[in-house]
Fold these 4 entries.
Entry 1:
Amino acid sequence: MKNVMIIFFSIAGVDPLLDRGLELTTPEKGKLHLVFALEEKVPQALSSIMAYIGFLGEKVKSDMEASVISNYYNQVETITTEAKEKAAKKNIALIDQIIEHEIKENCIQLIEEQNVEHLLINYTRDDYFIHSSLSNQLNLLLPELKITYELYLDGVKAEKGEYQNGSPDQT
């Protein structure tokens, strides 16, 4: 049995990760876990944009935040629907969830509870988002988990050492 988890800090370029996750998951016995990490209600990196919008008034700002969140959830729903169809064709169980709070702790707990043997993580290529992200903390803990993992940047497999911020090389 091979259980695989994909953690999406970025939902750009998901198809290569879904394909890789399905390839690694053992049909009939293994499970593919999709975890969508929404680090804050509106990602910190968008807060500067919101500050510019803020001068238009609180209503415009709250409407914009609601639109960003709604768009994210709609994209996640589309991704999971397509992933479930692909998984069903390969006789692979698929579990999906969104984590909004205590992302690092919740991801580590899921990895341990679900006996995940291989981890795929999709970050964004945008340095501003990367540097303001809690995902770095998860990345730094990967060697402690003693799990095989692959890092992706918006759906493209990262080269060893490509992902910055003191993160370990991938295995």
Entry 2:
Amino acid sequence: MLKRVVVPAVMFAFALGCASATVSSTKPAAAPASQPPTLQDIAGQFALVAIDRHALPYALGSQARAGSTSAWPIVGGSLSLNPNGTFRIQTSYDTTGAVGSFEASGTCYRAESNFKMVWNDGGLTDLILRGDTLLLNKEGSLFAYLRR
């Protein structure tokens, strides 16, 4: 008689335990696709930290032309990018003992996965975001600006 009661009770407990251990077949929700950054996302103050992967001060070398600012070593610079797309860029040069500077401004706009800079005095430059660094390809040289 004991055998009749124990065997069904063990079978019931085993079935109940297996039923509660079933694995859910629902899949986790897919992560939302990340949106490309906007001008508002990248706006801020940036400091010039390198040119063509060289630390400052750095002279542009083969691109230097006598009598032009590119013949002087670049000792620093900054880039201010506003949320409305306007920018101001300042570059400091060592002009043999004294520091001179050059300033320019313009507007930026989104172009596919990067940005374009339109200079007030003419010209168009690619602006690429890499983490906290903005890269400007200006006349064949890569200027790297780090977010402050």
Entry 3:
Amino acid sequence: MSCNNATGVRRTMADMIELVKLQGRLFAIDSREAIKRSIVSVALAGLAIAIAVATLTIFLLGISWLLTEQFGWPLSWSLLLVALISAVVTVLVLLAAYNALRRAGSALGESADEFGSNIQWLQERLATPPQPPASRNGQGSEVVHAAGPSAAGSPPGTASTYAAARHERQPGRSTVGTP
């Protein structure tokens, strides 16, 4: 194995290790965010269940009796009307819980997408033959390479891009891929 090949392999291995570290950090951040978002979803689902139980007991009896007394309706018709209204309210609360849970899962989707692009970058990097060292202004053969994910040839969306995206992210908005 020549010196250039050994240097290229070492550089690629160092980039791979850095990439795995960054992917782990991204997954941890996204997992915490997903858990935070899921708490709201679970709370809304619990609220929907509590509303459904309370609705069935209170509305079906209280409002139905009121309709029967005020309008002279048969108790069966007033019970049916109140049950339909309570079902609509319950469905609306469950839809809100479903939407919040779906948004919570999107945080992990971003991590999976980024992981896929990192794997694609790695495959392309390993498939490309090493290039001869670049010279600086035509003087000598000094290689210009900064170690780490911000170096030339590193996968897109690493290091400072991740940090900026996580720092500037606002709830409900995706900023993956923006500096």
Entry 4:
Amino acid sequence: MQDFILLRYGYDAAVDPPHLGKRLDDAFWLGLGGHWQEPPSWLEGQALWLVEGEDMPLRFFLRGWFAVQAVQYSGRVIAQYCAVGHEGRIFRSRIGPLNGLPWFEGLLQEHPAFLQGDPIRMAEFASGLRSLTQQAGYDVPGLEEGPRPQPTNPAAPAAGGGHRMQLLDQFGRPYRNGDHA
């Protein structure tokens, strides 16, 4: 399973049970913008990470992920195709902001089409995203269920007097233990 990342400026998402999109028969349904000559079937069997952008200057937050089972014709004018799946996670609290993280800044520089809403294969940037997700206490795609690392306390300084990256919720407040499940 490869990792792809996609930007939107708002998702129609629910946490419990995890749901994305307006169709109720698929747990995850996401319209794919753009004018595709052929369906982007290369997304099938891949993990699609959902990043949300907001405010000016633009800030980015990780909203969740899902495994794309199929790409289907949607019949819509703007989003002709949609990605659907049944396995994934919508995070109770968004992770971020991602701005300033070295792997994310590298992704923005190397893939300007990401800002246009095109799905981007992450390759060398995937380990940073997966690590960030696991540090927040969430599952990542393609791994067997098992013990998850405990979320870090973002306010505590790291050993040696350094500072850990601070994870913020959707309102810009630091996470506290137990805030996200």
